[in-house]
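INTERNAL AUDIT FORM
Audit reference: QA-55
Scope: verify that the stored structure record matches its stored sequence.
Auditor: D.O.
Record contents follow.
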Amino acid sequence: MKDYIIEKMYEWSRKPYQKYFKKSIPWEIDKDELLQYPVDSLGFGLGNFLDKNHFDIQPKLEDHDIIHVLTNTGISVADEIGMQYYLLGNGKRSLYLFMVILSGTPFYLRHINYFFQQYKRGKQALPFHYLDFSKMLSISIQSIQKTFKI
């Protein structure tokens, strides 16, 4: 039931967040185009992630799924919260990040050690959350992970 509540909160907040808070320009690419990139590339990794999870690209939110790919984070609610802790450790500060952490953590207190572990992982990585990933789609995932110690 708590997963359902948190997922509904996300759905209600996603569209206003996309429209009013995300200033980025939507990428001009779709899942099929991403899957045409070399197999080890970030573009292919994103296309594969979207395809495997039956997702489509969400305009202005493409970076979110890229972070899933680079950090190898799952898509459960606890994983989503953990990823925000990772990004907090990596230096990201946003309304959405704090909203997820503050609203989600109380529902998942039994995962608090995982959240702190993710925070520490983010802190150990070099800051990468601000990169323009749309220009990095042909670069290998491993190369990006190695460069930024992800």
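Auditor finding: record pair retrieved intact. The mean pLDDT is 91.
Action required: none
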